[in-house]
UniProtKB/TrEMBL annotation:
HAMAP family: NADHX_dehydratase (MF_01965), NADHX_epimerase (MF_01966). The lineage of its organism: Bacteria, Pseudomonadati, Pseudomonadota, Alphaproteobacteria, Hyphomicrobiales. InterPro entries: CARKD, Nnr, Ribokinase-like, YjeF_N_dom, YjeF_N_dom_sf. PANTHER family: ATP-DEPENDENT (S)-NAD(P)H-HYDRATE DEHYDRATASE, ATP-DEPENDENT (S)-NAD(P)H-HYDRATE DEHYDRATASE FAMILY MEMBER. Pfam families: Carb_kinase, YjeF_N. This is Bifunctional NAD(P)H-hydrate repair enzyme. Bifunctional enzyme that catalyzes the epimerization of the S- and R-forms of NAD(P)HX and the dehydration of the S-form of NAD(P)HX at the expense of ADP, which is converted to AMP. This allows the repair of both epimers of NAD(P)HX, a damaged form of NAD(P)H that is a result of enzymatic or heat-dependent hydration. The gene is nnrD.
Length: 490
């Protein structure tokens, strides 16, 4: 049975999926047996020299998976210490406990030894509050002994909804989960706390693995059908004309990076709108990218009468915040798509309502904040610890009627209609000066070619990561921009 590795479901949605599977006739205890078998197989595969398996079992079904794993590990010849609390009577976990003939010791009855491997089957996704002092002391004991941990479903103490620890939390070397990933598996710091992920099929029918509030891992099925294509019948203007608005002489490099990335992303033409005092300096660096001297709103307004200009990037290295707000107002009135990044975002700190009013109607605004910019724009959302990064991005998208690319190692792409995706596979070396300018340029290039905003957001983040992998560790932003891959031809 194929598993959808892209769908992310919340712990509450997973509970409904489990219940639906049992209601459809699937044997719930059979699901637990399969889950425990996957856990035991993970331990045996990754720790062939294990001396003792220390299986920590909680009172719920997560603990039931642990009881099954303990029994199977013991039958495989591994010495097993089973610790925890007895399960509630009458359920599948109680049956799993009864079928395991190993004694169930108290949690504080285990003392770490070399060669131990902990199986964390305490709570998984079933706990969304801080663990008690006994569990906190146990987590400290495991950490201080540097004992490797294999967690069942999620490291105990980690929120499966937000990806944030609710208090003390295990650091797992491996996490074994079932049927579908949860947001906490891919959002930071949860992704790091989970270690290596193992998504396993335990027999839940694929038709039941659905959510009424789906979030996706970013993948090409989200945007592939909307990618612009190239053909022999096209000419440069039919492939879009992207305009990147440049800052003053001292900071023009950021705009050049965005412009080059937009050209590499397939825009037929790219122009820099350059302040008069910086035209000559920019000309020394440009070949395929054109220039237009734009010094004030009147000059920009006149140029915008050219309806062949099809998309804009405002913000990288722009500098003048008041001027940025004025330019943004003109771009909004033009009715064409706009990417706001860097100074284009900072210009609207404390003025988010004004920005949202500029771009009502069709979704044609994309904003690309990193964490600091997001906090300046949306201090209330950023300060609400009950919200996940997905929640915050969705709320921001609705406030602005925009697609939000909330950057980071767990970049979230969210639209005002509630669609959301988490990008979790970008290389770490993208965290370098100028990388965000390249992303803004890719997004602008795709929007200029007519790609819908949400799909363009997902595709631009994917292309950005792909360029980073191609450029390699130690890359500079110039190398990153040069590594953006053109889109395929028909």
């Amino acid at each position: 049975m194929a598993i959808d590795h892209a769908l992310l479901v919340t712990p509450s949605a997973m509970g409904r999926i489990d219940a639906a599977a049992v209601a459809s006739g699937v044997d719930g205890y059979g699901l637990m047996q399969a889950a425990g078998a996957h856990v035991a197989a993970c331990v045996l595969a990754h720790y062939p020299d294990i001396r003792r398996a220390v299986v920590l079992c909680g009172p719920g079904n997560n603990g039931g998976d642990g009881h099954v794993a303990a029994r199977l590990l013991s039958q495989s010849g591994v010495p097993v210490i089973r610790c925890g609390v007895p399960p509630k009577k009458g359920g599948d976990a109680a049956r799993a406990d009864a079928e395991c003939d190993l004694p169930l010791r108290a949690l504080d009855d285990w003392h770490p030894e070399a060669g131990d491997v902990v199986v964390d089957a305490l709570f998984g996704a079933g706990l969304d509050r801080p663990a008690g002092p006994e569990i906190a002391a146990l987590i400290d004991r495991v950490r201080n002994a540097d004992t490797p941990v294999v967690s069942v479903d999620l490291p105990s103490g980690l929120s499966g909804r937000t990806g944030a620890p609710t208090g003390p939390c295990f650091q797992a070397a491996h996490t074994v989960t079932f049927a579908a990933l949860k947001p906490g598996h891919v959002l930071m710091p949860g992704r790091a706390l989970c270690g290596e992920m193992h998504l396993c099929d335990i027999g839940i029918p694929a038709r039941l693995i659905v959510s009424d509030d789906p979030v996706w891992r970013n993948h090409e099925e989200l945007y592939r059908n909307q990618l612009p294509t190239m053909s022999a019948q096209q000419h440069k203007y039919s492939r879009g004309h992207l305009v990147v608005l440049s800052g003053p002489l001292i900071s023009g490099g950021a705009a050049r990076l965005a412009a080059m990335a937009g050209l590499r992303a397939g825009a037929g033409l790219v122009s820099l709108a350059t302040p008069p005092g910086a035209v000559m300096a920019q000309a020394a660096h440009l070949t395929a990218i054109m220039q237009r001297s734009i010094g004030d709103e009147e000059t920009l307004s006149d140029w915008l009468e050219d309806d062949r200009l099809s998309g804009f990037v405002l913000g990288p290295g722009f500098g003048d915040l008041e001027k940025a707000r004025g330019f943004c107002g003109l771009l909004a009135k033009s009715g064409r798509p706009v990417v706001l990044d860097a100074d284009g975002l900072t210009a609207f700190a404390g003025r988010v309502d004004d920005l949202g009013k500029l771009f009502d109607g069709d979704v044609r605004l994309m904003v690309t904040p990193h964490e600091g910019e997001f906090r300046r724009l949306f201090p209330v959302l950023a300060g609400d610890e009950s919200l996940s990064k997905v929640d915050r991005a969705r709320a921001a998208a609705q406030l602005l009627n925009a697609v939000v690319i909330y950057k980071g190692p767990d970049t979230v792409i969210a639209g005002p209609d509630g669609r959301a995706a988490v990008n979790s596979d970008a290389p770490s070396w993208l965290a370098t000066a100028g990388s965000g300018d390249v992303l803004a340029g890719i997004a602008g290039g795709l929007l200029a070619q007519g790609m819908p905003a949400f799909e363009a957001g997902c595709a631009s983040v994917a292309l950005h990561g792909d360029a980073g992998r191609r450029a390699g560790a130690g890359m500079t932003a110039e190398e990153l921009a040069a590594s953006v891959k053109s889109l395929p031809c028909d």
